[in-house]
Amino acid sequence: MQSLAIETRALVRTFKTEKGHITALDNVNLKVKQGELFGLLGPNGSGKTTLIKILCTLLYPTSGEAYVSGYDVVKESNKVREIVNMVSGEESSGYGILTVRENIWLFSQLYGIPDKVAWERIDELLKLMGLEERADTRVHKISTGERQKMNLCRGLVTDPQILFLDEPTVGLDVNASRTIREYVKKWVRENGRTLFLTTHNMMEAEEMCDRVAIIDRGRILACDSPSNLKKLVSKEVVLELETSLFDGIDLPYKFSIEKNLAKNTAKMRFLLEDESVIPKIISKLTENSIKLISLKKSEPSLEDVFIQLVGRGLHE
Amino acid sequence: MNNLRRNLKAVYARAYVRIVGMNREPSWVVFTIFLPLLSVAAFVYVYKATAPPEIINSLLARVIIGGAMLAFWMNVLWGMGNNFYYEKELGNLDLYLMAPISKTSILLGMALGGMFSTTIRAIATILLGAVLFNVSFTLESPLSLGLVFLMTLTSLYGLGMLFASLFLMYGRGAWHTANLMQEPIFILSGFYFPIKFLGFFIALLASFIPLTLGIDAMNQLLGGSFAKKWSLLPVNLEILILTGLTAVFFALAVKALNFMETMSKKEGRLTLRYM
Ligand SMILES: Nc1ncnc2c1ncn2[C@@H]1O[C@H](COP(=O)(O)OP(=O)(O)OP(=O)(O)O)[C@@H](O)[C@H]1O
Ligand SMILES: [Mg+2]
User: Is the reported ipTM for this assembly greater than 0.90?
Assistant: First the structure.
């Protein structure tokens, strides 16, 4: 028990809404080891944020239990709060009137970090995130990406045992995302910290995490290392098609569609049990007057694991 | 021990935002010094034109004190009452709820920061008003005056701390509530005229607003002989009541805060259902 950073047992969370009850988490059982980089991968509305909120003591479970570093998140919430921090890629927190440095300092004080230590850490973190030049700029003048980096500094400045990141790179450009991923990974490894990350970006999960849990409609469908998860689809053939844009199509195969409205194209990704059906797919597309632009076979990724488990793509 | 230090640091940090914030936002100077002075000026000229000369100074002293105290009321309403609502919109509220501190520390920090920066404005209003309208103040008992001022502020900000959670739970209604409360309180608190003119019982009712008793007491202590004639209650009793109000508002504020936090964790929302 002590070596577990996070443990949930039969965790359920429902919400009352006008339309009735929503089950956001349905019997979630997870164990995250100390020092692990753990990812929770799932589409919109699958319950990722809800789980993070429960683990960060912002929400009560409806039933079941959750422990962080062995502390019960409901009964020992103050113990949990001392050792965790959470940053969401979507948050717009902070005070526009304060500078970036002051803003991070403010939130560090809620954790009792001594001033001297706080200022040293802040300057170091800002440097590592490439934000030193913005240190004395007021928060209302910085860009969205800079804000996200600032928020990450806010999460790291308290040096938490367990860091929760809720889609930390959503909306960031490739470079900024890479900076964040690399830094967080290094920080976890060097300090023996634990990371709990949610994302709907396959690549991010694959690149960063020791283990990934796949969640859909509040249920954990699989939980393993990315390479083991990919074994679930190792016998399958992955086919990537680029086609003209179309509304919808019914095919008796597992596939995902990602539409590109700007280019007027769609990307289809098929997970096939055997290659012989490829001509059938192509003729079916032609029947529906969908134009084929390119076709290639590709390596299985986590995305295909998701398609395999859920029967649809992660972004649908 | 660690816990106490953390909470004190949180109070200080939250107060810091307030103080820095106000000083970096020059429009606040206009809002809290010049606007009150404008309405002060209006009353000053009315009184100068209509009141018997011997009581004019006492009346004007009251108007200027009222104008100065108005800044605190605005701060409590817009700075404290609506604050959690804004913190929620900004996304800061979750960060406060997630931190290993008592949420009362955050409210306390907001209150202290607001008190400090508003006191500077209030002093400016009094000095400017005294010079511009040629009003003299008689300082009879500095100790009582200090006590009255302190207890007026603590009870006023205690009320503000209570508003913070209530306004949040009432969601969109918050803004309207604050707006609705602004005008009646101008009258009920006797900002610009002795509250006793409204009749003793209305005055008593109005005493639940800490400003009413505070202004009345300050007027007695600063406004010279005539001010005492239209006083509501003896100063010492007023101090006592203000102290009681402080305790009551503070206890209710902590209760409302805990209620809000528990509801948020249980229901996943911060506003009351029927709103
Ligand atoms: N406070 C709430 N009140 C009512 N329903 C809620 C609340 N919070 C979440 N839900 C619902 O619970 C489900 C899970 O939401 P959650 O935010 O956890 O999903 P998510 O995986 O984080 O999605 P996203 O990728 O869009 O961030 C959704 O159907 C959502 O509408
Ligand atoms: Mg989410």
Answer: no
